[in-house]
Amino acid sequence: MKKILLSGFIALSLLVTTTSCDSDDDDRETVITAADLPQTASTFITTYFPNATYQVIKKQDKPDSDGSVYDVYLTNGFEIDFDANGNWIDIDGNNQVIPVALIPEKINTYVTANYPNQFITSIDNERTYTEIELNNKVELVFDLQGNFLRIDK
Predict the structure, then answer these.
(1) Strand, coil or helix: what is 123?
(2) Which pTM value belongs to this model?
(3) What is the pLDDT of residues 21-78, one digit of tens each?
(4) 151: closest CA among 127, 115, 125?
(5) How far apart are CA 6 and CA 67, in angstroms?
């Protein structure tokens, strides 16, 4: 009887182990061309980064937690994530200044007044807040109306 129970337990353990190991296939991404980007994303890039060209564009099968589906890498070093409709989610300038036209006015005013010698190098539009990073690596969090909330550590 013990051998039967032990054999059953081993078989069940092997079955659970082998089926739980193939969950890595859920997060796939595909390299696509600029023609496959939503028009909104293409227009955004040509408007705010007219001198840059596409280095790599990746499309994810499932959106990230922030809703981003498209990861666009430009030759000028910028990385921009877009949602399924082509709306930008976050922009990483890789230590380069984010175009001022992309920063909400209230946030830009706060940064200019409180960090006059710094500039914004990334901006993330989260579902309930906006987070920016300055060139000194300080991260600031604002509500969706642009009111300062806190320094993020």
Answers:
(1) strand
(2) 0.78
(3) 444 445 688 999 999 999 999 999 999 999 999 999 999 999 888 888 999 999 999 9
(4) 115
(5) 46
